[in-house]
């Protein structure tokens, strides 16, 4: 029986937030044959599906509204970010200009300070020299008076010799005074220059001492940082080794799980084939036994009975084949739905593996950087720059990383009627098939029995006992096979999700 599925049900949403779920339409199926019939749908199921549909629509609308709000907030934040960036650039330009002005003013002030110091020292030296010269002049004046008195006493002895000696002494004293004044001025200028140099050397010594203290402090801080980096490198190496082990374990477990899934699938296909064959044979034998138990006479019209039995067997086998095909199609649809869930889980696992690999790469890069820092000698710190203005607070932009997706547990068992209604498949019941499979043959048999052409007889007790003995074994075997098939996916699913939770 061919099943036409016009409207498949998508199980995912777009990244934009809009759903791909189409609105449910009224199914208009033309009966392909007189055998097809619809499954009776109860009011409770219809109300339940209607409620689910309304909930899905409400969720979709709420997601759309949330998306619009998020987009508005994002645009507002981007505008604020652009305005702040423009302000930041303006402040940077102003800061650069002010720094240039500051450097110019600082150089000018330093030059003025040096000139002021030189002039101050020169003034001090000149004042000292003036005071010394005044003292010397006063002493010389006193000595000159004494000498004049002595000369007046000796005037009578030798006037000519004394006059010549006095003229020569006065000329020599004037030249000596001029020379002394020149030397005093030169020495005062030299002393002022030397004193300015001494002051500058004192300032440089003080600055060097401060720089030495800062360098010692920086060296101690760098040693502490070096120790911390060594500890972090050791921890990162341990984490790297652990993550590599975990990755290897995850890969091995994934391979083992894939092998187990393939084995389970092959076993399931084989068991399905065997169970279909057993079901078909069982149903054929059951139908034959019912016809035999009704008491068809072997004496009267044995050829017709055999022909009828053969036709009935053929029809029964065709019905069983069609039923099995229908069941297989339903099972394939269920497997498709489960595969979609499995694909989503595999995508989540792949994303997690990618995240782990990116973390490994970042850890290795950090370890390499730490090793390079350890190997490289510590560079001397540059001179302290002028204090900068307070930095702007960092903007909290929306993160582009996708959110962590939770794992979805797939359903181990889906109700057949709910799945058929959601997909749009209409299943035919067994009674309708039996009634509509071969209406002509069954009506001929019933009319023949009513007319009295066939005489019913009692079945033998031995055949009944044999059938009663044989049927329970086959039925029990089939029930065991079906039970194992139903339990296998649950166990496999529990093992699979248990391993995932442990490894995660």
Automatic annotation (TrEMBL):
Residues 365-375 have a biased composition (Basic and acidic residues). The keyword Cell membrane does not apply. One of its GO terms (biological process) is positive regulation of neuron migration. Residues 377-405 have a biased composition (Pro residues). It comes from the Eukaryota. The keyword Hydrolase does not apply. Keywords: Coiled coil. PANTHER family: SHOOTIN-1. This is Shootin-1.
